[in-house]
């Protein structure tokens, strides 16, 4: 039997992001299964912040995340390897100038 | 690169301070004030006074516009860089400025204003960008001077913004500041190399510094006595250090750098004040500054029309990307495709109006 909105067989997967301290960005800390967004937030609170690891939580459906393919790693990131001039240490500045 | 934290919609002399308290929602206002007083952060989903939101949208979007327009004066020198090394460095720097603009547009968007709207305001001339980019880059030394002085001034201004009360702006600034050190050092080093060169090359550096020094001092905005918006921005934790204090910090840091470089800063009144433990300096020409802000600088028209042209020339790329994405989604759905074609035409007309 097919319907336009099929009932969920399993709870979907959610990715969990936790802000550890006020002012900092949310960081990915893991994933979990939950029936909906509210449920996922509740579960994330229980699973990932039992020791006050956070002040705020984001949950995102895992299927919404597009990821780069592991085999593309070299093509994506190698070109930055020989551009050492993007780093401040590439430039020799006389000692007496101080911090720049 | 930089933002001017003053309201350019008002003409000088007619400014009045914005009301400090909001009556929109007294309870939420109290919570907001308490958070600000505790040096806390405001995040996108938090309640905030409308004036706070508007001030931030204006400041962050103008900051973003400055990064984007800031690519133009230096970009002019990419094809004329004196060596492959300098060319690669300059491309990397201009690319960073584009990136900084994108971080900032994203931060501004968290306040509920769309990027389309921000771009339309830039293109119509309603929104401003840093006036420093309305001056021309006449010789190669200008690329070095922009890195050393313009980015140096920007860093002075941006470091306190890393502690701004609005979380997404503060975090964007932390990212920008990390990348900015390379910009200043590459500029200063390029000038050091020129100062070891011929008399002509040395003269080029001095000429460039002469042209940019006063404009860089003006980048910090009007004197505190004439900057009523600063007070409100300070109260909100958006601004942490006053225009004059930042300007003084910049001068104090730059004079020794100029000495090492072997250039003269074009201000006969520039002198160490033992009592104040700061450098004294001469008067800034604010009439010239405001004339440039209000559209009458040497390159205002050129910069804006270059930007609008680049945006319009890119329209087909944005259309093609959307058309491709829609095609992947709905195969040969004729109705959807004709809808898309229509909205794309609408958008084009909007851009024409903006231009």
Q: What is the end-to-end distance of chain B?
A: 24 Å
Order of strands across the main sheet of chain B: 1-2
Largest sheet of chain A: 3 strands, antiparallel
Radius of gyration of chain A over all CA atoms, rounded? 22 Å
Oligomer: heterodimer
Strand percentage of chain A, roughly? 15-25%
Number-wise, the strands of chain A total 3
User: Structural class, judged by helices and strands of chain A?
Assistant: alpha+beta
Average pLDDT over all residues of chain B: 89
Q: Radius of gyration of chain B, Cα only, in angstroms?
A: 22 Å
Q: Determine the number of helices of chain B (DSSP H or I, runs of at least 4 residues).
A: 14
Describe the structure.
The complex is a heterodimer of chains A (100) and B (355). With 100 residues, chain A is α+β, with helices and mostly antiparallel strands. In chain A, 17% of the residues lie in helices and 21% in strands. Chain A has a three-stranded antiparallel beta sheet with strand order 2-1-3, covered by helices on one side. In chain A, strand 1 and strand 2 form a beta hairpin. The longest helix of chain A has 12 residues, at 37-48. In chain A, 10% of the residues are buried. Chain B has 355 residues and is mainly α. Chain B is 65% helix and 2% strand. Chain B is built from 14 helices and two strands; from the N terminus they run ααααααααααββαααα. Chain B has a two-stranded antiparallel ribbon. In chain B, helix 2 runs antiparallel to helix 4 (84-109). The longest helix of chain B is centred in the middle third of the chain and has 29 residues, at 167-195. Residues 7-19 of chain B have low confidence and may be disordered.
